[in-house]
Design a protein that fits this description.
394 residues, alpha/beta, seven-stranded mixed beta sheet, six-stranded mixed beta sheet, 14 helices, 34% helix, 20% strand
């Protein structure tokens, strides 16, 4: 899928930089005909993208609930206690590890963004500010800090050197330990027309079979998998050292493998129709916005997620069609969206300006946002969900 030229989707523009040059890069996702890994080209090194990061996980109530439920589930399933160590790679602001800490289970976060790691430390979550790979894993293992539970939520896609990263997981995992990995499922991306989840910070897009192949290459085996609703449909993998014989594969593993084959994920022809589906979504969204503006309606957006910036830049939507967007994160407020330069305000502006339409950019959180913004219905405000197809909600 060729999405044209796009800026880095989390490169929010401060007011003093509005008249400065802004870099755009080709955004073209390609699929490997051998292993069927979907990737975009790396134009900026991870250090340029993630060392100072605008995304803080704790600003979504539904994501916090997801994290809390996960923590309670794995604590019970694997009998974790104060003698175990839980390590999370790309631990963000401590959104997840705080729930293990509340149960007196030792935790350690590994997070490359110093500004985000500081927030985790404020929550009492000890955090190492480093990128993760074999070097970091060896340092921690040598210091006696191997993990009983090693967590990687929505990090695998952000890694340009997959082999080094997965090899590091193998090194850091204690004998008898468990790895859980969550990532958006490529099958759901294709079925749900979720092209806006393609952006430069996401180097890779995974099917189950491709992820299984990568883990197996580095001495890890998947013994269970769950299909979960987060991010429009994700997978949660449970893996261990391949030499572990005490964890037989759950039937879900073979079932998902078969499901992907039946869906054609090991066939290049499956990917060829996706481009036209995306282009039609662009046409429909532009037709709706142009019609609304010609009718004298006001249109704004809710949220400033990375996926929203892909959508807006690909469709060529700027302040000619959208007045502004709002976001709960104070780290984004007062800035402008990359490329489109749509201003970002606090959500309180919605009550003052009373827009006719509110486009929900983080469509994966639509239920949470519709509940938050239910007051907009008092003035007749309506909501627009752009993915998988344009939907107007009264």
């Amino acid at each position: 899928m060729n999405l044209g030229m796009s800026p880095l989707s989390n490169a929010f523009v401060p007011p003093e930089r509005l008249n400065h040059m802004e870099p755009f890069y080709p955004l073209h996702a390609r699929v490997c005909g051998k292993c069927f890994l979907v990737q975009v080209e790396e134009f900026e090194p991870p250090g340029s993208i993630f060392s100072d990061y605008a995304y803080f996980s704790s600003y979504s109530e539904s994501w916090l609930a997801h994290a809390c439920n996960y923590a309670n589930q794995v604590i019970e399933r694997f009998d974790l206690n104060e003698e175990n160590l839980v390590v999370e790679v790309a631990s963000n602001d401590g959104y997840l590890l705080q729930y293990f800490r509340q149960r007196n289970i030792p935790v350690l976060g590994i997070e490359p963004a110093q500004n985000v790691a500081r927030e985790a430390e404020k929550r009492g979550v000890p955090t190492i500010v480093k990128f993760f790979g074999t070097d970091t894993a060896r340092e921690l293992a040598a210091s006696g800090r191997q993990a009983d539970l090693l967590v990687g939520n929505n990090v695998l896609a952000h890694v340009p050197d997959l082999n080094d990263f997965v090899a590091g997981l193998k090194v850091l995992l204690k004998s008898g330990g468990i790895i859980t990995l969550e990532f958006p499922h490529l099958l759901r991306l294709l079925d749900g027309n979720q092209f806006d989840t393609i952006y430069h910070e996401h180097f890779s897009y995974f099917s189950f079979s491709t992820a299984e192949e990568i883990l197996h290459k580095h001495g890890l085996t998947i013994f269970d998998v769950e299909q979960i609703p987060t991010h429009g449909g994700s997978l949660r993998l449970y893996a261990c050292h391949r030499e572990e014989s005490s964890r037989p594969a759950h039937p879900r593993v073979a079932q998902l493998r078969e499901q992907e084959v039946a869906a054609g994920l090991r066939n290049l022809d499956t990917y060829s129709w996706f481009g036209e589906k995306v282009r039609e979504t662009k046409r429909a969204l532009l037709e709706f916005l142009i019609s609304a503006k010609r009718s004298g309606k006001s249109v704004v957006c809710y949220g400033a997620p990375a996926k929203g910036n892909t959508l807006l830049n690909y469709c060529g939507i700027g302040i000619d069609l959208v007045d502004y967007t709002v976001d709960l994160s104070p780290h984004k407020q007062g800035h402008f969206l990359p490329g489109t330069h749509i201003p970002i305000y606090h959500p309180e502006i919605l009550s003052r300006t009373r827009p006719d339409y509110i486009v929900i950019l983080p469509w994966n959180l639509r239920d949470e946002i519709l509940e938050q913004l239910s007051y907009a219905r008092l003035w007749g405000g309506r909501f627009v969900v752009p993915i998988p197809t344009v939907e107007v909600i009264e």
